[in-house]
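Help needed: design a sequence for this.
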């Protein structure tokens, strides 16, 4: 179990441990398994996370964030991760053609070295889109006169935007929604 979990990110590993530990706990109680192998992995992966300001957003907070966006692009920068769970690396390679029939298909990611690659598990992830997300994507495509093969998130000259710019745009929108504390307050909270 530990070897398998090492391929995941920290947060994915914690979720996997939670899922597997309940299964193995039941197997131990039923006498099917001698011991719970997730106990060793959980000691390695479970460390307290003290710097999170918001663990879970309420539906009202999500609406506040989306409503704080001042452009279609910024609204999509926050709407897509909130509603679908899409990752930054997936958003950077997202094309208008990946969004059709009310579904979002992720088949490419931007790798850390800047190359375009298949997702780690080499599977296409398909996620449903809300009608508001479809409307925003259609509006942005029409606003830009974009084709199906064009990137959704682009920089000034129509080239792929950087991961940093995407994160900064999301933080700017969240800041407008007044859900994040100012930087000086966050640093004080992290020390507690």
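Sure. Designed sequence:
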């Amino acid at each position: 179990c530990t070897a398998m979990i090492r391929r995941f990110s920290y947060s994915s590993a914690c979720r996997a441990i939670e899922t597997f530990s309940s299964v193995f706990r039941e197997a131990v109680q039923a006498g099917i398994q001698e011991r719970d192998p997730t106990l060793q992995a959980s000691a390695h992966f479970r460390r307290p996370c003290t710097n999170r300001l918001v663990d879970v957003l309420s539906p009202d907070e999500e609406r506040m964030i989306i409503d704080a966006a001042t452009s279609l692009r910024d609204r999509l920068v926050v709407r897509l991760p909130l509603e679908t769970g899409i990752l930054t690396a997936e958003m950077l390679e997202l094309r208008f053609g990946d969004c059709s029939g009310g579904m979002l298909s992720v088949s490419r990611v931007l790798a850390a070295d800047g190359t375009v690659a298949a997702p780690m598990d080499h599977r296409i992830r398909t996620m449903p889109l809300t009608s508001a997300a479809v409307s925003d994507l259609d509006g942005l495509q029409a606003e830009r006169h974009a084709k199906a093969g064009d990137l959704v998130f682009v920089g000034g000259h129509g080239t792929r935007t950087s991961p940093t710019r995407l994160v900064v745009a999301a933080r700017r929108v969240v800041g407008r929604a007044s859900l994040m504390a100012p930087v000086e307050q966050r640093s004080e909270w992290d020390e507690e």
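The first strand starts at residue 99 and ends at 100.
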